[in-house]
Amino acid sequence: MSITLNDQDKTTLATAAHGAVALIAAAGIKSAGKIATAGSLALAAATGPVGHALAEKQKGLKLNGKSTADIADTVLPALTASMTLLEQQDPAEAGNFRSTVLTAVEAGARAERGGPGPALTEMTRKITEALDAA
Fold first, then answer.
1. Residue 22, exposed/middle/buried by CB under 10 A (0-12, 13-18, 19+)?
2. pLDDT tens digit sequence for 74-89
């Protein structure tokens, strides 16, 4: 099945995926930089149409916020919207996106010194819940 993503779709995917990494980094207590790097490297390894979309520089990508809650208000709905969009076009690609995001989240969580704590574990749960809400 072929998939067609316009610029807005690609921005939504990038906001969701890169935003998930930003949320995990924000939830990390000791190693936010290492978490962000590990998660970003995992996203860079994405393949298929999702990988191509995430590799493009997105002009509309905005992950700014004064708090983690502000970022989550943007990212969590973008995760659900991305899954809905991809499910409509190609369920296999939706699975690829879900797997890519969760791999990045797991890579980030593993980079936390001393292992993921309660805040990081809870953020992972929220991200997974948003992915599965579609």
1. buried
2. 999 999 999 999 999 9
Please compute Rg for the chain using Cα positions. Answer: 14
Residue type, position 104, single letter: A
Q: Whole-prediction pTM value?
A: 0.93
> Could you tell me which of 108, 126, 129 has the C-alpha nearest to residue 30?
108
| Cα 98–Cα 104–Cα 43 angle in degrees, nearest 5 | 85
User: Are 91 and 97 within 8 A, CB to CB?
Assistant: no
Distance separating alpha carbons of residues 123 and 72, to the nearest angstrom: 9
Q: Is residue 96 part of a domain?
A: yes
Length of the chain: 134
Contacts of 50 (CB under 8 A, 6+ apart): 13, 86, 93, 96, 97, 100
Distant-in-sequence, close-in-space partners of 93: CB < 8 Å, separation ≥ 6: 3, 48, 49, 50, 86
Expressed as residue numbers, the domain containing 90 is: 7-57+67-132
Does 43 map to a domain? yes
